[in-house]
């Protein structure tokens, strides 16, 4: 992958008692150069994460971003992202990464929600592509990809992960989201 190829990594941060989660989008080039940031939010426990991430992409207004990487599929306490709808909206490949093996979200969704709230989340969750394990450096990540096949998804993840198991766009976005949340908590606004 060319050194200047850009990806937007989106991560979030919220604390107990928050009703909104801070989202950060960090644009990084494949050579690890940070090239832009955008901030937004979504509702903790809500259903607006897909729209919120789409808004980040639109607000960023960067045609040179080639890939959208997400830290997980359920930010802000099960506010599920519809990866297919997001990929259609941003017209870019979308990859959702998780960093631990798990049986999936269905048991947790059944435990935390009921009735229409459960049905809506299950429908969104079940419509997503399956997770695939990708070995990167000495770690493993689990990736759901829309707009690229499994081999290309692995190439993208590895290209943006110079060390460890977390791609740089997601690592930087997570750091910035946490800092913005702490700033918001101390000053009352972001």
Automatic annotation (TrEMBL):
Gene3D superfamilies according to UniProt: archaeoglobus fulgidus dsm 4304 superfamily
UniProt lineage: Archaea, Methanobacteriati, Methanobacteriota, Stenosarchaea group, Halobacteria
Protein name: UPF0215 protein DU484_06525
InterPro entries the record matches: Endo_dU
UniProt xrefs under Pfam families: Endo_dU
Source organism of the structure: Haloplanus rubicundus
UniProt family annotation: Belongs to the UPF0215 family.
Coiled coil: none
């Amino acid at each position: 992958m060319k050194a200047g190829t850009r990806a937007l990594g989106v991560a979030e941060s919220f604390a107990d008692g928050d009703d909104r989660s801070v989202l950060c989008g960090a644009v990084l080039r494949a050579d690890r150069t940070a090239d832009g940031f955008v901030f937004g939010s979504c509702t903790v426990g809500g259903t607006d994460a897909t729209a919120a991430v789409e808004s980040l992409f639109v607000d960023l207004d960067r045609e040179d971003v080639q890939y959208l990487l997400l830290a997980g599929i359920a930010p802000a306490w099960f506010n599920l992202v519809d990866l297919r709808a997001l990929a259609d909206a941003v017209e870019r490949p979308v990859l959702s990464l998780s960093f631990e093996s798990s049986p999936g979200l269905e048991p947790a969704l059944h435990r935390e929600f009921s009735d229409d709230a459960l049905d809506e989340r299950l429908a969104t969750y079940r419509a997503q592509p399956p997770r695939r394990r990708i070995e990167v450096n000495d770690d493993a990540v689990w990736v759901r990809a829309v707009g690229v096949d499994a081999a290309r998804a692995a190439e993208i993840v590895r290209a943006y992960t110079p060390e460890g198991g977390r791609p740089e766009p997601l690592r930087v976005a997570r750091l910035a989201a946490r800092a913005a949340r702490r700033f918001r908590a101390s000053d009352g606004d972001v």
